[in-house]
Each structure stands twice: as structure tokens, then as C-alpha cells.
């Protein structure tokens, strides 16, 4: 099971301590995305030298976890899983179930990781936490978190809409010797180079991997991500309110704008009233999800949708992102000595 070396080798030596502990060759994690990052994506990312993360959502069954974690582990390479703290507050079972499959790393985000983090440590795995503002960063610097994932508000899916990736990353790197991973808005070799050059131990990437061939997302969702521009997203709680999902109010979601968000994102109070008064809106969004009507159903994606295309495999995406080294070398040649 992984153990972080004592010294902060990320800053002082040629080997990064998180890379040493988790054994990836490419500093690329696919984000643990419920509904997209199943076993196939997790295994494909780890097999390609990155670090694959299984996304475990709120309503996940034991059967699903057993099947998908089994596939995730089938690459024979280290892998991890991500779960939501506010879901684990009510029930630690999904965490216990995934730990039985031997992940090396577990990310617990969106709420207080406390008892869940202790359980992960008992299993011998490392614990990570996504942070979206300075207060959450301070929380993640406490002893029970090993890896800080700075998740900026340009990122896709749920999170805070407070601070962007680079300010959060710079703050974290100035405050801690723990490994720091950057998330939100990263989709190209240049983006990965930016955060690795700043001192991150890895890049955590959601939207671009959601559109890969191994992602569990509906083909229409992958096409929609591939066809979107960088300014086609909206940050809103409208989809959760309509579906009556109890995400804590501080965590909305970034999704592609559609007819539904255009109608309701600016008037959440009226939406809440409508959802409380009858089931019409809830039924219509649930039906839209079932038939992949993306004018109503949410397509969770970040601003990097504008830098992502559908139809590539996870290995092709990792090979492309591995070009971050050439970007850094070019910058060093241009700016390396005065
Ligand atoms: C489709 C989708 C689903 C997501 N689901 C989860 C999730 O279940 N748990 C989680 O911790 N983060 C989830 N996220 C957020 C990611 O972990 C990550 O913060 C984000 O994707 C990073 O930004 P990017 O999309 O610009 O790469 C999701 C993101 C997307 C795009």
C-alpha cells in the first residue's frame, strides 16, 4: 500500500513524492466522475500510465461497485476511487465496498471527510480531498488528508463557484508541503504544463475524459461536450433542484447551457416553488435524462469542453497530454536563463 516519503521531493528532488507513492508514469488523473468514470475508463487511464479514478455517485449499488471496481483493478496497475462526503455522512457502506477491492487512493470531496478518511487510512490507501476555496484548503491541510486537489470554478460537474484553478493552486503550493493536484479547466498539454510548471504533482481532468470512448456517458453527451465552446457552460443548482437531489447548497454544478438552464438558472426560487407544488418538472427532467434529451437533461462539463473532442480513447488523450513535457522544455529554452 502506498506511503508518502517524508521529504517534499516534489519541490527539492527530481522525483515527485505522489508519483513515487502511487506509481503513475504520466501525472494525469481522470476525475472520479459519477456516471462517466466507470471501471473501463479507470482501467484504461491506469493502463496508459496515468492514474485511473472510479467515480462513485449517490445512488450507487453494491453490485455496481463490485463490477466496476473489479474492472478498474483489471489493468493490474494502481487505481483509485472518488466518493462524496455528504453521501458518506449518511452511509459509509459504498466506501467499505470499494475499499474491499484495494484502491491505492480515495478522494472524498464535498463535505467533511472525517470518519471516511479514517476508514481509508485503515485500509492503507492515501486520502485526497477536492478543495474550492481558502477555508476548504485550510481543512485539507489537517493531518487526515494526504493529497490536496485544488478544484477551480471553471471545472465541470459539482463543486464551488468561488475561486479559479490557478489562484487556488498558487495559494495551496505556498502553504503546504503535501502533494497538490490541480483540477478545473485543464484539457491540453499546455494546460498540464502550466500547473506542473507551477509545482503541482499531477493534473486532475474530468470533462476531456468524460468524452472518451471508455466513458460511461451517453454518446450524445460526448458529442455535446465535443461540440461545445469554452463559453457554453453555466454554473447552477437548477438541475439538482428539479431532480430533487439534496446536494448541499454550496455545491452547484457546471454544465452545458441548454433550454432548461436558460429557463430556470436565473430564477431558482420560482423553480423551487414549481418543484414543491407538483411533479411536472421533476418528471420531465427525469424523462429527458432517460431518453437523453439534452435540451432539458444536464450535460455536466466545464469550460474545457471547448478544448475537448469526442471519439478519442483515454490512451490517446493521455498520449496527447504527455506533450506537456515538450511545452515545459520549450519554455525552459525560451526563458530558462537570463
Ligand atoms: C461529468 C462529470 C461528473 C463529475 N462527477 C463527479 C463526482 O461524482 N465526484 C467528484 O468528486 N467530482 C465529480 N466531478 C468533478 C471532477 O472531479 C472535477 O472536479 C472536474 O471535472 C475538473 O474540471 P474539468 O471538468 O474542467 O476537468 C464531475 C465532473 C464531470 C465533468
From TrEMBL:
InterPro entries: Aldolase_TIM, NMO. Keywords: Flavoprotein, FMN, Oxidoreductase. Pfam families: NMO (PF03060). The keyword Chloroplast does not apply. This is Nitronate monooxygenase. It comes from Paeniglutamicibacter antarcticus. The lineage of its organism: Bacteria, Bacillati, Actinomycetota, Actinomycetes, Micrococcales.
